[in-house]
Amino acid sequence: MKKFVLLVTLVSIGFTNAQTKKKGTIEITPKIGASSFYENSEYDSTKYNSGVQFGVTSDYYFNDRWSLRSGLIFDKMGGTNIDAEDKYEDKLNYLSIPINANWHFGSTRKWNLNFGLSPSFLTKADFLKNGQSQTGLDNSIKSFQLGFTYGIGYKIGITEKFGILIDAQFFNGLTSINNIIGVRVLNAGYSYNIGGVIQL
Question: What is the CATH number of the domain that holds 58?
Answer without folding.
Answer: 2.40.160.20
